[in-house]
Design brief:
The complex is a heterodimer of chains A (280) and B (335). Chain A is mostly helical and 280 residues long. Chain A has 13 helices and no strands. Chain B folds into two domains: 141 residues, Periplasmic binding protein-like II (D-Maltodextrin-Binding Protein, domain 2, 3-Layer(aba) Sandwich); 156 residues, D-Maltodextrin-Binding Protein, domain 2 (3-Layer(aba) Sandwich), CATH 3.40.190. The chains are: A mainly alpha (280), B alpha/beta (335).
Chain lengths: 280, 335
């Protein structure tokens, strides 16, 4: 019903717009992806299953999905903090800091990987003191986590920032004058407002982390069963000219990512809906 | 190191731009990573030779990357007139999957179509603090060994096979398995490529010994100073034969067969062999080898054709494919 009321648009009609969208998505996204599926169908079900449930492949799936989720969660917390500081406080050199946030977007991932490895190896600036505390970062799963946090940070900051900027301070003041504590103001007023954007940022950071290859291979050490990510498994299969094995792993990754992203999107839709109802 | 590469790349780009303007013929040489400097020198020399003998200007474009990745690019349609890769297996696949050259490509040029060779040696830190002299020292407790992942790096497969040969000489396949398992227990990091492993060892200070191609090890010492690293030549190693081939389908389509064949043959001439030796590859030609004998110590060398390996196809299947010997080293117990 809401849709019907909003049919008046500046853009041309619903039909051509939808048709074009589907065609565009088909060409750019669906056709390349379906090629991966088609290649996988040349495998028998049994060999597909053996390929994707091999202990080493499973270990890589656990690492890739686990560490990507963790990195995205850490980015959600600290990205929100960074965005908050950038929006609310008059910092000296704010523009510079603002630009700094975007750097992980622009840097070639291999450069990020080499730089992070240099810093976090046991001879590095941060790695050496950490090693003395008994914490090894580079060439361990912890190194993978650091790389994924690095590349994912801008996604959260950049999605949350505009929402914080647009947020009416009147709500906070109203909450304050109605006797809310700062914590209550945050959990009841600010957080629900930024939550949808935060979920979007989390999703983007997570999706980016899942597919990341360039920076991770430098810092992970690539030890089988310990620090191999799924994209590396795919490369090792290609290196044996095992194209179908590589696409089999890729397809599982695609399906799992799609389901996860779908769940997150549903969650977001639910959050938005609930919020709309609250405002009634 | 990087800035030097940048300069080299810049110089190459300029040379290419200048060359393209009035070149009569171009060749694309698809090669692997550590041959960049070798082919820069060689291409200049060949261009001069070709102009003098055939009155034709030739421009050679180079493409470098991991050997397997390069082979896949050629299979997928990168129009390479010649391929100069790290191992015969990759060119075999261009033949069998891509059908771009005949299966007997390796017989078309002398010495298994490998005009220059190398071998696998050790790079250790100055003063050799862990006293590494031969393969058995690498499996001692407390020795940390850096070598790239043989599943992703063609060059690393030679490293692995050299180690296997050492184990095999001690008591057949059982001893070889025992040795290789013990060796990889001492490997804390598996970089995806050979240059990556060198960086890990040299720049990140990881590990006590780097297993490397001789040409890479000499280059590392030359670039970073003999005050930091030493080269150790083991008593036994493998003859690494990086092969070259003309890609039949491409040269016939582009009409470049004559110059492409001459290009590869020129690698076997005295000039070509000199350039290889200067870039730290072992020359095949006796005369040049004698001249550079001081740079390349003598050692016992097995080849990939040795019955303990049975050629690349068999070695790849036994050792490096999924479920092969290398995978078994890392298989969790109980599976």
């Amino acid at each position: 019903m809401v849709l019907l009321q909003r049919r008046r648009n500046v853009l041309p009609g619903f039909g051509p717009a939808l048709g074009f969208t589907l065609l565009y998505l088909g060409l750019i996204v669906l056709i390349p992806l379906s090629a991966a599926f088609a290649k996988t169908f040349t495998l028998t079900w049994e060999s597909f299953w053996l390929t994707v449930t091999h202990p080493r492949v499973l270990a890589a799936f656990r690492l890739s999905f686990g560490v990507s989720l963790l990195a995205a969660a850490i980015n959600a917390v600290f990205g929100l903090l960074v965005a908050w500081v950038l929006v609310r406080y008059p910092l000296p050199g704010k523009r510079v800091i603002d630009a700094l946030v975007d750097l992980p977007f622009a840097l070639p991932t291999a450069v990020a990987g080499i730089a992070l490895t240099a810093v976090y190896s046991t001879k590095g600036v941060l790695g050496a003191p950490l090693a003395e505390l008994g914490i090894k970062v580079a060439f361990t799963p912890l190194g993978v986590l650091m790389a994924l946090i690095f590349i994912g940070l801008p996604f959260v900051v950049r999605t949350v920032q505009p929402v914080l900027e647009d947020m009416d301070r009147g709500y906070e003041e109203a909450a304050h004058s109605l006797g809310a504590t700062p914590l209550q103001t945050f959990t009841r007023v600010i957080f629900p407002t930024v939550l949808p954007a935060l979920i979007t940022g989390f999703t983007l950071a997570f999706a980016r982390a899942l597919g990341e290859y360039g920076s991770v291979v430098f810092i992970s050490g690539n030890m089988p069963m310990i620090s191999e990510i799924v994209p590396l498994i795919i490369i090792t299969k290609l290196e044996q000219y095992d194209y179908t094995g590589a696409t089999a792993v890729a397809v599982v990754m695609l399906v799992a990512s799609f389901i996860l992203l779908l769940v997150i999107n549903l969650l977001q839709w639910w959050v938005r809906k609930r919020r709309a109802e609250d405002r009634g | 190191m990087f800035s030097k590469h940048l300069k080299a790349a810049g110089a190459l780009a300029l040379a290419l731009a200048a060359g393209l303007a009035h070149a009569d013929v171009t060749l694309l040489n698809v090669s692997y990573d550590p041959t960049r400097e070798l082919y820069q020198d060689f291409n200049q020399s060949f261009a001069k030779y070709w102009l003098a003998t055939n009155k034709e200007k030739v421009t050679i474009k180079q493409s470098h990357g991991g050997s397997g990745k390069q082979a896949r690019s050629v299979i997928d349609g990168l129009e390479a007139d010649v391929v100069t890769l790290a191992l015969a297996y990759d060119i075999d696949e261009i033949s069998s999957i891509g059908k771009l050259l005949s299966p007997d490509w390796q017989k078309k040029l002398p010495s298994n179509a490998s005009p220059y060779t190398s071998t696998i040696v050790f790079l250790v830190r100055k003063g050799n603090p862990k006293g590494i002299k031969d393969w058995d020292d690498l499996i001692k407790p407390g020795v940390s060994v850096i070598t790239p992942n043989p599943k992703t790096s063609g060059g690393a497969r030679w490293n692995y096979l050299a180690a296997w040969a050492h184990g095999y000489k001690k008591g057949g396949e059982a001893k070889a398995r025992e040795y290789i398992t013990a060796l990889f227990k001492n490997v804390p990091i598996l970089d995806s490529g050979a240059r990556g492993a060198t960086t890990t060892f040299v720049e990140r200070g990881q590990g006590d010994v780097l297993i490397a191609w001789e040409n890479e090890a000499i280059l590392a010492i030359k670039e970073l100073g003999p005050d930091k690293f030493e080269l150790v030549t083991p008593s036994l190693s493998i003859l690494a034969e990086p092969p070259v081939a003309v890609v039949d389908k491409v040269v016939d389509k582009r009409g470049t067969r004559k110059v492409a064949e001459a290009y590869l043959k020129y690698l076997y001439t005295e000039e070509g062999q000199e350039i290889a030796a200067k870039n730290h590859y072992r020359p095949r030609l006796e005369k040049v080898a004698a001249k550079y004998a001081r740079d390349f110590p003598k050692l016992n060398l097995v080849t990939i054709a040795d019955p303990i390996f049975g050629g690349w196809q068999a070695a790849q299947k036994t050792h490096f494919n999924d479920g092969g010997v290398f995978d078994k080293i890392y298989q969790p117990t109980g599976k």
